[in-house]
TrEMBL record:
UniProt-listed PANTHER family: BETA-GALACTOSIDASE GANA (PTHR36447), BETA-GALACTOSIDASE YESZ (PTHR36447:SF2)
Single Gene Ontology MF annotation: metal ion binding
Keyword annotations of the record: Glycosidase, Hydrolase, Metal-binding, Zinc
Sequence ranges assigned to domain Beta-galactosidase trimerisation in this UniProt record: 139-364
Record keyword Cell cycle present: no
Name used for this protein in its record: beta-galactosidase
Coiled coil ranges: none
Taxonomic lineage of the native organism: Bacteria, Pseudomonadati, Spirochaetota, Spirochaetia, Spirochaetales
InterPro entries in alphabetical order: Beta_galactosidase_C (IPR013739), Beta_galactosidase_Trimer (IPR013738), Class_I_gatase-like (IPR029062), GH (IPR017853), Glyco_hydro_42 (IPR003476), Glyco_hydro_42_N (IPR013529)
Domain Glycoside hydrolase family 42 N-terminal: 59-119
Catalytic activity: Hydrolysis of terminal non-reducing beta-D-galactose residues in beta-D-galactosides
Amino acid sequence: GSKPEWGPRKYGFDHSYGSLAGGVGPWNHRYKVGPYTQTWHRDDVLIEDGQVTGIQGHTQLGHLPPPEQVALWTNQAIARGANAIFYFRWRTAPFGQEQLCYGIRDTDNTETERERHIIKNMQNLSPILETFASEPVPAKVCLVYDRDTSRLVREQPLSLGMDMRPAPYMQVGYDAELARWFAPYVIYNVNSDIKSTRSVNLDQYKLIALPLYELTDETFVQKLSSWVAQGGHLILGWRSGARTRDNWNTDLVLPGLFRELAGIRVPSFEALGKSAVRLRLHDSASHQLISSVIACKGEVWADILEPETATVMAHYWDNNKHYSGKAAITCNKYGKGLVWYLGTSPDPKTTFFLYQSILKRARIKGRFFGLGVEAIQRTTREGKTVTVLLNHTPKKKRVSGKTIPPWGTLVIEGD
């Protein structure tokens, strides 16, 4: 029978068992989980994006998304770079491991409300989404990860705050930390890429975020240094430069090969576990005042920083810690560029305020439209700029004079 399908070539599957090309687990779709979804395509290459449509589970079931939200996720995936969507599942399996993976249709094979909303969404938005679905996603920001470090952190999560095991065979602390680092670009609606240290082309970007880069490649550090000196902006995270590529502890003063670039020393550190430490911001007078009233915190880890050429952007401000008053976040001018060092993982409030300053100083336009509203800029095949507005809430939202219905999508011209 016919089934919902999406994409310029109308890819589709119609099997009673196994309806997705590839898996959907976070172990093989690491950076396509939850609201921080990003897909990649360059040239004329199919990028498959699997979308869960119903209640999912192998032994237990959980949240049932509203059918309107399922359609919204389709639009989000297309807006973020997918040029084809395969819905998981088409029909719910009558037996086997995926009996509890409910899809577009249940085992009675009759039309569901989910199916009606997906088809209606395609009919309404397909003409406009297809104008940019196969075009590159323009981005001046890139979150860079390192595969070897990801494997290391899975074996040595460093802190109880990074030890996350949703199943006995999964350790997703590194994934969760990367989601934390990707979050500010979603909050401020800044188009951003996700690349590995081996594939990233630094010259394409104005701002690079490089969290948890422990297994340090000297050649890559030299490339970063040259790029920053020429005007690039870099954000480093705690434990940067702690080990060699052979997984030996560095014999250099931390942050190892990044010491000159970051303009700091890290003489000591602490794993915060599930606890947090209070911070006070210094990136602006208003944020200094705000963080003295509103509790801004660091989580997971605390590198205790000693600036050499760097400026303090935040310090630990917690009477329960013997290192209260020491630097927690710094910014160093290196050539024509800037290097931020985050000695701790900022909580949501700290992230919100801190990245206002980071984006401004990096001369990247960030826009906050309120919680639950996402804006993604795309370029159509005719060269026009459009903005996809997504409402991730069950309430109406108003943006730029336009009303977005609950779980709704609007595509407007311009940025």
